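Late entry, flavin-adenine dinucleotide complex.
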Amino acid sequence: MSTKRKVVVVGGAVSGPAAAIAAARYSMNTKGAAEILLFERAPNIGFAVGGLSYYISREVERIDDLIVLPENVLTKKYGVKVRMGYELCSLDAEQKKVVFRKGGRRHSEEYDALVMATGARTFFPDKPSQEADNVFKFRSPADLRAVEEYLDRHKVRVVAIVGGGFFGIESAEAFRRAGFEVHLIEKTAHVLERWHDDFSVLVEQELARNGVEVQKNTVVVDSPLSSKKVRVVRLANGSKISVDLVLICAGIKPNAELLLDAGAAPGPQGTVAVDKFQLTTLADVFAAGVCTSFPHHITGKPTWCPQALIAHRMGIVAGRNAVGAECAFEGVAFGTAITRVFDAALGRTGLTEKEAAEYLGGKRKLSIVQSESTHAEPFMESARSFMARVVLEKRSGRVLGAEAWGYGGVDKFIDTMATAIAAKLSIDQMALLDLTYSPPFSPLDNIMSRLADEQVR
Ligand SMILES: Cc1cc2nc3c(=O)[nH]c(=O)nc-3n(C[C@H](O)[C@H](O)[C@H](O)COP(=O)(O)OP(=O)(O)OC[C@H]3O[C@@H](n4cnc5c(N)ncnc54)[C@H](O)[C@@H]3O)c2cc1C
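Prediction complete; structure with ligand written out below:
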């Protein structure tokens, strides 16, 4: 009988491979013996989901270029046994046994530790019908190939995108860059509903400036099928759009049902709750990535943060712990995110104003500072506009959250603010930090010092 610790990882996109590699590295470094198996239901693993749109806009040459972690790296370099085309269908946490389906056959596997990295799936609104041949989701290489095949075989001029969140905006930009007429349909009053309106308005303006038609405060109410295709979508606001292709970007749902059915404690929004070791409430069952919610760094409350970098880091922690490490994940759930909107960028981190007010027990305990400036010294011809809004605890000036929009420097600002949140720094401390300066990169009176000056004490 093998004495190796057997770790089964389920899910092969971002957090699963990160977990498998981390488990392999940790056991190699500690000279522990582990057998690591990675199961994925799709025919591919290690895919950069975030890159899908950039293939549409032709900024990525081949779909296969998006495979950032090929199977042979896992097998040859790390000795991970990769099993593709296996769908997990049941989990018995007491017997420590999982059962997969492959084709018509069943395959069972026992484990010493299990890492569930099953991610999330596209949420489909009632309309338009997902049965239509020209209605697509956008979450996997298979989805991208299906879109490409349709574009190759049909004359497509008009694309409607349902959902004005990050993925909807990214996709709208990609299809527009590729020369399509693009309509973006958003249910709420503004795109990016989690953002302060000032930023959503700037995004809407940038989309409009680049020819994307944005319809807000409305939903698809009718989308009749003709020869299995949606030709027209009718919106609740009375407008009617003739379409050739529809992309659904209306949100995602965590794939946590198997864990919850097996008795794991739930988190918010259909996720499974994990602790800072990525452990569920089931013995030796870890979970990582977008099927999980994690204690928020500031509030301590379980929070769902469906972002790639966090999913990857959670995978590392889960993988190490599955082979006996005691690795804790401290800095998660800021909701740090960035997206490009044509020439501009939009980024955020930490708590929104509403979340911060709930956390501190009232709006009056907050100080909100906003500043508009340029990303470089204003005397530089290259200087472009930059706007930031930061949520502070009034009493201490501690940074709780930040949003930024601009044509340069947004990533730098947001990463710096995420670091400030992790280190519990105040905006005054940020303003006095020794940061980079040179006219093409930032003004001497940089955004941190401007924001510090804006505080109402
Ligand atoms: C179009 C798009 C763009 C994005 N852009 C960004 C970005 O720019 N920045 C960012 O931070 N995030 C981005 N994201 C989000 C990010 O990609 C996800 O957070 C990340 O993919 C999560 O990784 P994951 O491994 O947890 O889950 P997933 O990527 O959802 O992968 C889960 C895997 O598990 C498999 N699986 C599920 N159930 C089973 C089962 N029962 N048996 C076997 N296998 C199973 C699935 O097939 C899948 O491969 C984007 C997402 C999309 C869709």
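The chain has a mean pLDDT of 94. Will revisit in the morning.
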